[in-house]
Amino acid sequence: MSELIDGPAITLDDDWQGVGMAAPHDAALYLELDGWEGPLDLLLDLARRQKVDLRTISILELVDQYLTYIERAAALRLELAADYLVMAAWLAYLKSALLLPREEQPDPSPEELALRLHLRLQRLAAMRDAAARLMGRDRLGRDVFPRGAPEGLRVDRKHSWQCDMFGLIQAYGQVKARTAPVVHMVRDRMVMTLESALTRVSSLLGVNLDWMELRDFLPPHADPRLKRSALASSFVAALELARLGKAELRQEETFGPLMLKGITA
Amino acid sequence: MTGQPPDDLVRAVEATLFAAAEPMSAEAVSTHLGGADVRAALTALAAHFDGRGVQLVERGGRWHFQTAPDLAHLLRREKEDVRRLSRAATEVLAIVAYHEPVSRAEIESIRGVQTAKGTLDVLLEAGWVRIAGRREVPGRPVIYATTAEFLSHFGLESRRDLPGIDELRAAGLLDPVEDALASAMETAADGAAPPDEDSAD
Amino acid sequence: MTGQPPDDLVRAVEATLFAAAEPMSAEAVSTHLGGADVRAALTALAAHFDGRGVQLVERGGRWHFQTAPDLAHLLRREKEDVRRLSRAATEVLAIVAYHEPVSRAEIESIRGVQTAKGTLDVLLEAGWVRIAGRREVPGRPVIYATTAEFLSHFGLESRRDLPGIDELRAAGLLDPVEDALASAMETAADGAAPPDEDSAD
CA of A57 to nearest chain C CA: how many angstroms apart? Predict the structure, then answer.
């Protein structure tokens, strides 16, 4: 860890203005700042200017260089994006923490923070190199060329329909079955018509001279559904016979048995 | 044609003509390659590709690569999709077979539902149904009949080999079973909506 | 490379790939040629064209003919049809290629800056990057990966051919910072040795 931070120090000129610039002029600094994609990009560039393997770079040196850069830009009252200033504040904190005696160092340790920054720079650098190597490959359409006028391949789709004999005759059978004339059959409901009830009740009244309950007029052993119909029809028949003066009706209590007796003329 | 590696000029001419979007005259190739004399290289290349799947040919003084003429059929290939005939199409086919020649109106009256144009087209495409002329009635409707291909596909000597109505009934194929009802509903639906075989296309 | 005339299958494969407008997988060539086994023919063809001005190459499992790379200087046109990528797009492409599949957040954590919307769009539009689904973590971020066109364009047989990928992986530079940090701290705790990745080399 100590090697990482204090590691081989790179001597920098005091009047370092940024490598690769003809004139160490502050205006040029601004232009360069404009060209970076954020503080990590600037840090990586500064790290590369240490001209050592990125693995052995001094983080303290790097922090100083970054802070110097930002101070200069501030002195020139150049507008700095907020993230550059955030990074500057963080690096200033990192630097002060790194300079503290080990036992006074906060948690997480500044070594860990420095290592983290170092790892991030390495990863960005690795991808930047990879991108350059990728772009430098023999690229299709730039260095190597596909056929200029390919005829192209055409696939004409043709349907091959499938149907078998069974499917054919089954389909025909179903057409015929579906379109055959249909006879609608209404199922016989078991009913006793009013006419048959009238006949039955009046004939039974003629035979019996005593009072009889209406239920006794119903056909015995009849289907329950027929019984319901027979009861209703017989009741109406009884009312009709009473209206015609052919029968007397008597009921002792509400919902009590309805008694029926013929009137002999 | 030799097994020798080609010289640089031959390689350059080969690459140039391969990458060119249009046939190039010998002069154009030469200009492209800084004025080199490319005649011999073109001849050598043409010889090299002779008999291969690709050839270097000169047409009207301009050179280009092309697929060998005997392999031209490879550029257009027919792909067969095997597909089951839809129920609607099967019914129409059966009706044509049992009643031919029939007009579309007659097919519809037998099926009890409208028949989409696409359904007959599928049968025409399949080669099982043909247009057999027009009926000499008002409107002169087109009438349809089955083809020899239809007979051979279904293994029939003639249309007389189709089972009769009585045989269908004996086989239970005329029973109004649930199945038949369900399929009838289906067919009724496809008569109104776009036909199923069209939507599958 | 031999002077023997090629057999019919080799000729057919040669013609098919010459005529194809797009790179084709061995399976696609085989399907086009009615299901023939074309592996041996592809190898024979690649060997035949080795050293010529045109080569048969395999990129991401797909085969195509292209001009030999050493002839690039002869063929470069005034007007490059190759898209010029911004530095940001170039970096994003490299990150996707070396780390795939990656989410946008992961790309941004490596680059240390937000990725402008247009950057990934350019790569998607170029057909070099594709959406490879979503990562099953909270928020289900979209993840990106490279395409077969990417491999074709950059002349890579597969992702294993990405320049330096083995070294990067061995050095742990494709691992997330957190993992590298954890292992570095561990090493530091284990002994007095400096915890940087030198010790791991």
Answer: 11
Output the furthest CA–CA distance in chain C (Å, rounded): 69
β-pair partners for C145: C130
Residue C188 touches chain A, beta carbons under 8 Å: yes
Domains and CATH numbers, chain B: 7-75 (1.10.10.10), 80-199 (1.10.10.10)
Put simply, the chain B residues between 131 and 170 with a CB less than 8 A from any chain C CB are none
Tally Cβ neighbours within 10 Å of residue A140.
23
Could you tell me the end-to-end alpha-carbon distance of chain B, in angstroms, rounded to an integer? 49
β pairing state of A258-262 and A212-213: antiparallel
Give the bridge partners for B67, in sequence order.
B54
A139 touches chain C (CB under 8 A): yes
Helix, coil or strand: residue B150? helix
Strand, coil or helix: A248: strand
Contact B8, B40 (CB under 8 A): no
Residue-level pLDDT, tens digit, chain A, 265 residues: 333 333 333 333 333 333 333 334 444 454 456 668 888 888 888 888 877 777 777 888 889 989 988 888 888 777 777 888 889 999 999 988 888 887 877 778 888 888 899 899 999 999 999 999 999 998 888 888 888 888 888 777 777 778 888 888 888 888 887 777 666 666 777 788 888 888 888 888 877 778 888 888 888 877 787 888 888 888 998 898 888 888 888 888 888 888 888 886 5
Alpha-helical runs (H) found in chain B: 8-19, 26-32, 39-49, 87-99, 104-111, 117-126, 148-153, 165-170, 178-192, 196-199
With beta carbons less than 8 A apart as the criterion, state whether C64 and C20 touch.
yes
Question: What's the CA gap between A16 and A26, in Å, rounded?
Answer: 11
* Displacement of CA A186 from its chain's centroid (Å): 53
- Global confidence as pTM: 0.61
